[in-house]
Write a structure and sequence with these properties.
- By secondary structure, the chain is of the alpha/beta class.
- The chain folds into two domains: 161 residues, 3-Layer(aba) Sandwich (Rossmann fold); 161 residues, Rossmann fold (3-Layer(aba) Sandwich).
- The protein contains twelve helices and twelve strands.
- Strands 1-7-6-2-3 form a five-stranded parallel β-sheet, with helices on one face. It has a five-stranded parallel β-sheet with strand order 10-9-8-11-12. A two-stranded parallel sheet has the order 4-5.
- Helix 1 packs across helix 12, helix 6 packs across helix 7 and helix 6 packs across helix 12.
- Bound molecules: phosphoric acid mono(formamide)ester.
- The site of phosphoric acid mono(formamide)ester has 9 residues, from helix 2.
């Protein structure tokens, strides 16, 4: 495996095989599997889980890692092409990224959406421009429209909990004071569809997921025996749900317009998951969220601290599945 950029680049059986490897490494640790190997991690945006779990995972397999946060202790890196570099950035990614790749055996890059031009973000313009500069195994640590490591961890979390393959999965928009990127919702709806689930995207008007995202999920669902549906009717969406996956994202009808987005979300503060969201769900319905989450804004304490919440298990599974990704990248199929 040379690149781990999008679950859609893999057959369903290949994802299942990665999850099987993850489970093996969880139950039978291999502390010397990656001795002598080096992972480089470049974070253009903040992180808690991704940064710590990749470093921990590499160490648990006997390898080592370095972290670059451009502009914080290292040169600020310019990502735009063709610009006159007379601003804060001292170095361009066209030099910086291949130099870093030359120091390691695999590289991970986190670069969020610009959040200005939806089509450019859907095309992964920024991430792909950097990916082209890397001749080593490459991992997407979250790009404009994808977060495959989170998606794989969430798939494993549902398997751990015995959530039915064709169970009902509700990806619900929840409130946040400002627009957040589409990477996690886009990756999540595709992952649940690829797992074969009955997927409902629940969101207020104006926050529809882009047609390209929905179409990609529908193609995955068709192959896996699932379905994908979108609604703003909360009662309809939650009826019989096995999973409520809460996520914040920006309005798509006015993408890149912070003022219009703020106006649209002003009256939506009641989109905070509370216990009464679960009155029509399956009795053992679980609450998922990728974290970080704003308590009592996106999800209430009573849910996060209650038995339905599996957010900590999801976060722990980031470590486990990423070890499988690293193992397969740096050791091959074993
Ligand atoms: N879920 C996730 O990717 O967390 P971080 O942003 O903290 O890495």
């Amino acid at each position: 495996m040379k690149r781990f950029l999008d679950l859609a680049h893999f057959e369903r059986d290949e994802v299942l095989s990665l999850l099987e490897l993850a489970r093996r490494l969880e139950n039978h640790p291999e502390p010397h599997a990656l001795t002598g190997k080096i992972l480089g991690l470049v974070f253009f945006n903040p992180s808690l889980r991704t940064l710590a779990s990749f470093q921990a995972g590499m160490a648990r397999l006997g390898g080592t890692s370095f972290v670059i946060t451009p502009g914080q202790g290292t040169w600020q890196l310019e990502t735009r092409l063709g610009v006159k570099m007379d601003g804060a950035a001292a170095e361009h990614v066209r030099e910086g990224i291949p130099v870093l790749a030359s120091y390691c055996d695999a590289l991970g890059i986190r670069a969020f959406a610009d959040g200005r031009d939806l089509q450019a973000d859907l095309a992964e313009t920024n991430f792909n421009a950097m990916a082209e500069l890397v001749d080593k195994p490459l991992i997407n640590l979250e790009s404009a429209m994808n977060h495959p490591c989170q998606a794989l961890a969430d798939w494993k979390t549902m398997d751990d909990l015995g959530v039915p393959r064709h169970g009902k999965f509700v990806l619900s928009w929840v409130y946040h004071p400002r627009a957040l990127p589409l990477a996690v919702p886009a990756a999540t709806v595709h992952m649940a569809a690829m797992r074969g689930m009955q997927v409902t995207v629940l969101r207020p008007e104006g926050f529809e997921l882009p047609p390209q995202v929905m179409e990609k999920a529908r193609r995955a669902a068709a192959l896996a025996g699932g379905t994908v549906h979108e609604t703003s009717d909360r009662d309809e969406a939650l009826e019989g749900a096995h999973i409520v996956y809460a996520k914040e994202w920006g309005a798509t009808v006015c993408y890149g317009d912070a003022e219009a987005d703020a106006e649209l979300r002003r009256g939506l503060t009641h989109w905070c998951v509370r216990n009464d969201w679960f009155t029509r769900t399956a009795a053992d319905c679980r609450l998922m969220h990728c974290l970080p989450v704003r308590r009592n804004t996106a999800v209430a304490d009573e849910v996060l601290d209650g038995p339905r919440s599996v957010v900590l298990r999801e976060a722990h599974n980031r470590l486990i599945v990423q070890m499988a990704v690293l193992y397969r990248m740096l050791r091959g199929v074993q």
